[in-house]
TrEMBL record:
Residues 488-515 have a biased composition (Basic and acidic residues). InterPro entries: AMIGO (IPR031283), Ig-like_dom (IPR007110), Ig-like_dom_sf (IPR036179), Ig-like_fold (IPR013783), Ig_sub (IPR003599), Leu-rich_rpt (IPR001611), Leu-rich_rpt_typical-subtyp (IPR003591), LRR_dom_sf (IPR032675). It is found in: Membrane. GO terms for cellular component: membrane. Residues 275-385 form the Ig-like domain. Residues 439-515 are annotated as: Disordered. It is a single-pass type I membrane protein. This is Ig-like domain-containing protein. The lineage of its organism: Eukaryota, Metazoa, Chordata, Craniata, Vertebrata. One of its GO terms (biological process) is brain development. It comes from Astatotilapia calliptera (Eastern happy). Its main location: membrane. The chain crosses the membrane at residues 400-420. Keywords: Cell adhesion, Disulfide bond, Glycoprotein, Immunoglobulin domain, Leucine-rich repeat, Membrane, Repeat, Signal, Transmembrane, Transmembrane helix. Belongs to the immunoglobulin superfamily. AMIGO family.
């Protein structure tokens, strides 16, 4: 009876309002004081490991294999390395890493990420983040805004996702990027043009292996920095067996790029795009043996020496076994396989070979590729310039003869200018000899010379004559008229006296003969 009475008293106590209020209050208090899973893990993991919880060791915060669906809301602000791999996180929300100003390494591999929301790295370390691992997730599209706030990123791991498309230039702002891994995805193309030497000066490794690339933009790839070409991995793709592609890889192999040396067997191509027609083209290149290996890729403008062979590639973007090719020569002549006239030879893969180039072969060659199955077409133009053969024996002779002739003509013109130009320069006047006599003798000599110059029947050298001019010296004065008359009178007397003397001698001679 006592037992029954006690039980009855317990039920009455439980049914009382006071007891219910006390129980509810106790449960609420227990719930409020219950720590969050992350906080409990942090507090319990300091100095020891707790199964199923996070680990905080100095600047490392690890929450792996906890089936987390979101990034934890409370994390130590001193975290430098954050490891959230092997969870069920589906996306990175806006401000997911807010407050982690020291974060340098972020590991989110083996989750279920499908998107990174804008602002996910806002108010976090941002430019200090160096390494980020997003491998083995469910990313399908690489959006342009994913890494805009991570300019200091050096290593980016995106392999083993489901990425089939790259929007815009998601890597454009990563100026410090050194290595990017995008292998084992579903990429059919990649914006190589967005990577330049000035935008990514440190990028030395880009892994695009094991994707679905069928055509390579060779011009964009050749424009990449040489250091990046050495670290470009393109093996295990669905590349078409084409001469430009083959020439590119052969060129890299000759330069001993590691991407070719270490994965030589994994470089395969598909014959006419048929998955069953796989060829390891670096080991068995018989299908591509006609490719021109002297040129890495077909350029828009090429030169060739006369008499040499030249191989032109129809570098189009079409793929499939229903592709037909047609070439049009500069003389508007259509060329189809196997060629025509013995000077042009065309192969089934669309390449055109000029057997022996001639000067008349110079011009624009136009290629038309047509996909009849999908009703598409593409064109390609190549400007060919045929140069004269430098080994022609007549060429040095012609050059030497032309040079010699030019020298002779120049010499003749110089001689004509020096010696055949008419010169009307006046004769130079000789200075008078210095006077050595006394002034009196000088005056007499001067008078005598003036007298002789006037009385001499032969005109002086300064007399006017054909082609001569008389130049009077500065300061010369005309003799006075009285002197001229006196000299004339004396001259007449001298002549008369001389005549009389001659007559006297004649008479004397005559008288002597008579005697």
């Amino acid at each position: 009876m006592s037992h029954v009475g006690g039980h009855t008293e317990f039920l009455q106590a439980v049914d009382s309002p006071t007891a219910w209020r006390a129980a509810v209050l106790l449960l609420v208090c227990l719930q409020l004081h219950r720590p969050s899973p992350v906080h409990a893990a942090v507090t319990s993991s300091r100095g020891s490991y707790r199964a199923g919880g996070c680990i905080c060791a100095a600047d490392i915060f690890s929450c792996t294999t906890l089936t987390l669906r979101h990034v934890p809301g409370e994390m130590p602000v001193s975290t430098v390395t954050l490891d959230l791999s092997h969870n069920h996180i589906t996306q990175l929300e806006d401000g997911a890493f807010q407050g982690l100003l020291q974060l340098e390494t972020l590991r989110l591999a083996h989750n279920q990420l499908t998107a990174i929301m804008p602002g996910a790295f806002r108010n976090s370390s941002g430019a200090q983040l160096r390494n980020m691992d997003l491998s083995s997730n469910h990313l399908c599209v690489l959006e342009e805004h994913y890494f805009q706030e991570l300019s200091g990123l050096e290593e980016l791991l995106l392999f083993n996702n489901r990425i089939s498309r790259v929007e815009g230039r998601p890597l454009a702002g990563l100026t410090n990027l050194r290595k990017a891994y995008l292998s084992h995805n579903r990429l059919t193309d990649f914006p190589f043009f967005s990577i330049q030497k000035h935008s990514h000066p440190h990028l030395s490794l880009l892994d695009l292996s094991s994707n679905r690339l069928s055509k390579l933009p060779l011009e964009d790839i050749l424009a990449l920095p040489h250091s990046l070409q050495k670290g470009l991995y393109l093996h295990n793709n669905s590349l078409w067996c084409e001469c430009p592609m083959y020439s590119l890889f052969r060129s890299w192999e000759q330069q001993e790029f590691e991407s070719l040396l270490f994965f030589r067997q994994e470089h395969v191509c598909l014959v006419y795009g048929n998955p069953r027609g796989t060829v390891r083209f670096l080991q068995h290149g018989r299908y591509l043996e006609k490719c021109n290996l002297s040129a890495v890729t077909q350029k828009r403008s090429v030169t060739v020496t006369a008499g040499k062979a030249l191989l032109l590639h129809c570098a189009t973007t079409l793929s499939g076994h229903a592709i037909t090719f047609l070439w049009v020569s500069p003389s508007l002549e259509s060329v189809l396989p196997p060629g025509n006239n013995g000077s042009l030879k065309m192969f089934s893969n669309g390449s055109l070979e000029i057997m022996a180039a001639r000067e008349k072969d110079t011009g624009i060659y136009w290629c038309l590729a047509e996909d009849r199955q999908h009703h598409r077409n593409d064109t390609w133009e190549v400007n060919v310039t045929v140069l004269a053969d430098s080994n022609d024996p007549q060429e040095p002779f012609n050059t030497g003869f032309t040079t010699l002739l030019g020298c002779v003509v120049s010499l003749v013109l110089v001689l004509m200018y020096l010696y055949l130009t008419p010169c009307r320069c006046p004769p130079c006047l000789k200075a008078p000899p210095p006077a050595t006599a006394t002034p009196s003798l000088g005056n007499e000599a001067g008078a005598g010379s003036a007298q002789s110059s006037i009385l001499t029947p032969t005109p002086p050298a300064s007399t006017e004559g054909p082609g001569r001019k008389i130049f009077s010296s500065v300061g010369a004065t005309r003799p006075p008229s009285s002197l001229i008359s006196t000299l004339t009178r004396d001259h007449g007397k001298d002549k008369k006296h001389a005549s009389e003397q001659r007559h006297a001698r004649t008479r004397r001679c005559t008288d002597e003969r008579l005697i």
